[in-house]
Design brief:
The protein is of the alpha+beta class. Helices cover about 30% and strands about 20% of the residues. A five-stranded antiparallel β-sheet has the order 1-2-3-5-4, with helices on one face. Bound molecules: adenosine monophosphate and zinc ion (ZN).
């Protein structure tokens, strides 16, 4: 049995406010939005992280965002920008790949918090990343 809530949304076992769908993906309203018009874009196949996703899907998803969703959000909600974000396993509440499409507005106060105390020197981290 697949207990995944996003698979259930795709199979219409759970309701969603769908904005766009085709054979490959679905875009629907986030039930707990950070800003007005906060959407989620998900593949119709149950895949978990970006490591599972094929490049054709990503290209298609970006095309849908670029040609349909962002223009719609701009036209109808008059957002000033759009933030794309996506959690892979850590911080990923629903283990079905999803891209957050968060319209941005003046004074929306969306913030990305981090712990400066655990930050290392940038150059030290760079050396770890590029060292063979
Ligand atoms: P993440 O923390 O990146 O896994 O985000 C999961 C997102 O899914 C959260 O922002 C939730 O508000 C959203 N969410 C959870 N259940 C539903 C649902 N049934 N319909 C729409 N959005 C949902
Ligand atoms: Zn799923």
């Amino acid at each position: 049995m697949n207990d995944c809530i996003f698979c259930k949304i795709i199979n219409k076992e759970l309701p969603s406010y769908t904005i766009y769908e085709d054979d490959i993906l679905k875009v629907f309203m986030n039930i707990n939005p950070s800003t007005n018009g906060h959407l989620l874009l998900i593949p119709k196949k149950h895949l978990v992280t970006i490591l599972d996703i094929d490049k054709d899907f990503l290209a298609h998803a970006l095309d849908v965002i670029q040609t349909k969703i962002y223009p719609l959000l701009k036209e109808k909600l008059h957002c000033e920008g759009l933030t794309l974000s996506q959690n892979n396993f850590y911080g990923q509440e629903v283990k079905h790949f999803h891209l957050h499409l968060t319209p941005r507005y003046k004074d929306d106060m969306v913030d990305y918090q981090y712990n400066e105390e655990v930050l290392k020197n940038v150059e030290d981290v760079y050396k770890v990343l590029v060292d063979d």
